[in-house]
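Usage

Read records sequentially. Each one opens with the input sequence:
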Amino acid sequence: MATTPKTYESDGNAKSAEYNIPTTGDIDPADFKPRFELVDEFNYRDMAELDKFMEEPVLVEIPQSNNKNDDPFIQLGVNGINQALLRGKPQWIKRKYLEVLLRSMPTTLETVEYFDQQTGNKAVKLIKTTGEKYPYRIHEDKNPLGRPWVRQILAEAN
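and closes with the structure output:
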């Protein structure tokens, strides 16, 4: 059982609190609810499985571009760590970088003026187009859950 926190005040608005957490036995969640997020073992296992899944290698290719101004490398980043992909060459990357590639779907908006037949006035319609920033091919994914995962990510983008 945790003890009531000792609260210390410092200059300004800053406060700190000290908790005594027992090394054995149970902790009453009510003691810590306002200060800590309690993670049960089931959720922790799910997060660990997801981390393991996202670290798996997948063979991906970004096709060559016919635009001479396009960069020969595509750079994907996750948590400050970058992965460069060379266009036109199949490469093994971690699934977490594939997710960045799958979610790279810019949206463009275009306004078009037209004549509204019913009202006789000029009107403007907005055309929204979303598409892949970089086309890709997934050559190999050894995990049987990989293809359904890709379909789920693409469905979330639409």
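Summary fields computed downstream for this record:
- The mean pLDDT is 82.
- Strands lie at 6-9, 15-18, 57-61, 73-78, 81-86, 91-94, 107-115, 122-130, 137-140.
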